[in-house]
Amino acid sequence: MLLAIDTATRNASIALYDAHQVWAERTWFSDYNHTVELMPNIVDMFRLLRLEPARLRGVAVAIGPGSFTGMRIGLSVAKGLCLALGIPIKGIPTLDVAAQPFAGSDLPVCAVVHAGRGRFCAAVYRSVDGQWTRQGDFQLVTPDRLPALAEGRTIFCGELDEEARQAVQSALGKRAVIATPAQSVRRAAVLAEMAWPALASGQGDDLASLSPIYLHTAGDSL
Predict the structure, then answer these.
(1) Are strands 154-158 and 109-116 parallel, antiparallel or unpaired?
(2) Total domain count, the chain
């Protein structure tokens, strides 16, 4: 069984998963309370399923880009569990998780998460020769720069606030397909499913060197 942890932004999500089913999942708006909310929710999820942590065979964790503090909390908890239980870890980029539900779409997908200070982390994904592929690097942008990421008619998903939605729709019109809030929720079950093949085949990440993805601008980082 695999535990997945995503605290990369103000939204948090955890899940217990194996190749056959999602055993449990919780997704909530944590704001800046990951420190006090994450472990109690993990413990309670095990309690509800009457499971012991010893059943875990690996931990998947969202590694950003996103909130500096949120990413560090999630990664610290994930590493602590792996170290204590002697199990592998697998880090998955946050935007990869946000875009994954749209894998196989005929349209390119621009996935977005909040980066704070009125900015967003974004990346574009599309199917290339049957493979779901990220196009280029992660980017740190303001809402008015999001429309420039469109590649023809494009799906925008993730943590788009009202300002970002208006900027995209005003600039692109019908070329912008805005995912619904339910479609845009970043779920730990998706993170778990993405990490499962690597962990099941013994191809986890190095526990000591796995670190968050930060996007840098002049004078700060995210």
Answers:
(1) parallel
(2) 2
